[in-house]
Amino acid sequence: MPATNRQIRLAARPVGEVKPDDWQHCSEPVDEPGPGRFAGRTRFISLDPAMRGWLDDRPSYLPPVGIGDVMRAGSVVEVTASDHPDFQPGDHVVGTFGVQEYVVSDGRGAMKVDTSLAPPSTYLGALGMPGMTAYFGLLDVGALKDGETVVVSGAAGAVGSIAGQIAKAKGCRVVGLAGGPEKCAMLTDELGFDAVIDYRTEDVRKELRRHAPDGIDVYFDNVGGDILDAALTRLAMHARVVVCGAISQYNNTTPVKGPSNYLSLLVRRARMEGFVVFDYAERYAQAAREISAWIGAGRIKVKEHVVTGSVDDFPETLGMLFRGENVGKLVLELA
Amino acid sequence: MPATNRQIRLAARPVGEVKPDDWQHCSEPVDEPGPGRFAGRTRFISLDPAMRGWLDDRPSYLPPVGIGDVMRAGSVVEVTASDHPDFQPGDHVVGTFGVQEYVVSDGRGAMKVDTSLAPPSTYLGALGMPGMTAYFGLLDVGALKDGETVVVSGAAGAVGSIAGQIAKAKGCRVVGLAGGPEKCAMLTDELGFDAVIDYRTEDVRKELRRHAPDGIDVYFDNVGGDILDAALTRLAMHARVVVCGAISQYNNTTPVKGPSNYLSLLVRRARMEGFVVFDYAERYAQAAREISAWIGAGRIKVKEHVVTGSVDDFPETLGMLFRGENVGKLVLELA
């Protein structure tokens, strides 16, 4: 083990877009694992739109990251030394270990992963939180039924790309929304979406009318803003709007844009419902087995966008999410 | 029967507030009932916030009232002549007979009411659409449970006053929102609400924090706008927001104000759901029996605001709803 552990800590609460000055890059001494603990070297760090919300000091489903704290992040570490019975050197372990090069853990919230089944990074994506979010959001909150029409925004992202493919695997017609021709082509040509709308260049309302002529049964929303409003105009009777996220609003310095067309919930006897994936922890293993089986059968293709670098690249890499520069799950691989 | 039937017809689609010129006051010859029909004289005309939506030419749960058509309205008529086996002279009948003095009907959608159980006007309020709306909105859509905290906006209105009292009858803590000291005092002193917030003079968020310290389990929304946004900040886990109406937005000439705080649905694992009372028609009789029993037991007090006049007073009386001038169910009684 080297003498220092490079870390990214929160220096200030961002206003609007996160700026370089909002982060502190620092080096701490590397801890020894000590009794009942293991030490590990970080291999992959997850970058998630939800991180933006964790930086704000307001009540949410998790406490905000404190000023001066190591930035919260899911990651996969490789165990280097251990006094913990469940983790051995060479094991790969996923957990919320933060943006840092080295980790010492008592094992709480940590889970050993099987790298013979899937590459380590997949446990941050299709078999990690984004996959679980897509699965429970669509099937439990969205109460998806065979043959329904599903629209997914942020469809080329970590959650959206899995959500759309789960809906296909469940026998639904799936329309994706994404930005740019590359992502759109990937959704239809590689991932098997039935139709795709490029929200940057197309008239979203008009295209929704075309691609969901009988209305949207489940709208899985990752973006909020104008796209949510457009989808609300096209709901089928008894539609379900799954509120997974609102990436278009996270960097606002003005209030969030509320969905002006929410009264269509009344006209269409529809519901809009939010959820937090952690509530489904007891069922993660079952979901992961089902997603694994779909991956094995070629029904779900895993899209990962791997940036290779150091923890110092975390801030710039995080910005890619909000500029729409990633295709699939964005991870930072430590070189 | 007199020779002419005074009617109010829609002359133009209103922009913003409905103006006198948007209506046409006219007199038509009175029809004979003819075979299989009955004729009746209008006694009470219902005035409902939803009427504003019926004037707009946009897709909704009912087609818009056509330009030149008699204004759609629920009313109670007294049968004057009949060739219909189910309706006899002297009977009181409720139906969507429109804003006119005399009616000829084949009986479809008409229901004879028992004026020995309740005065005729009550069949436009507590035992009519507003009562049904409160009942199914709260119990079916809101899935109200004993002991929960319920917040009702537009609480002094036709639907809100019944919704709040049903929630009380079901063992809930009930907080009402209304405008002005008279309405607020009525809600707590007469109708038994646990607390009331005067949205015109009080800080709604602060008062919600005070009166619903453990959060709102069911928010029954009749108003939309800023009050909906305030309620969203105070949701309990797994809360239900019942979208019944949005009277604050109906006269907008700008887009509806969407709920900026809708992401609290995610944080609180909550849902927002709309409904249209007509979907529950098969269960109206059961709901009316239960509401009647509560009225009989003194657990629901019926508040009606009766304006006496002619059909020519309909436009001015309708305006009272949007100025918040009615207490309880607003009806126009024809002198």
Q: Any overview of this molecule?
A:
- Chains A, B: It comes from Streptomyces actuosus.
- Chains A, B: InterPro entries: ADH-like_C (IPR013149), ADH_N_2 (IPR041694), ER (IPR020843), GroES-like_sf (IPR011032), MDR_fam (IPR045010), NAD(P)-bd_dom_sf (IPR036291).
- Chains A, B: Residues 16-332 form the Enoyl reductase (ER) domain.
- The structure is a homodimer of 335-residue chains.
- With 335 residues, chain A is of the alpha/beta class.
- Chain A folds into 2 domains: 4-125 and 303-334, Quinone Oxidoreductase, Chain A, domain 1; 129-278, 3-Layer(aba) Sandwich (Rossmann fold).
- The first copy, chain A, is 24% helix and 26% strand.
- Chain A has helices spanning 50-54, 129-141, 158-169, 181-190, 204-211, 225-232, 264-267, 284-296, 314-322; strands at 4-10, 23-29, 38-46, 75-82, 92-95, 102-105, 111-113, 149-152, 173-178, 195-198, 216-221, 235-243, 271-274, 304-309, 329-334.
- In chain A, strands 3, 4, 5, 6, 7, 14 and 15 form a 7-stranded mixed sheet that branches. Chain A has a 6-stranded parallel sheet with strand order 10-9-8-11-12-13, sandwiched between helices. A two-stranded antiparallel ribbon of chain A has the order 1-2.
- In chain A, β8 (149-152), α3 (158-169) and β9 form a beta-alpha-beta unit.
- In chain A, 51% of the residues are buried.
- At the A-B interface, α7 and β13 of A face α7 and β13 of B.
- β13 of chain A pairs antiparallel with β13 (271-274) of chain B, so a sheet runs across the interface.
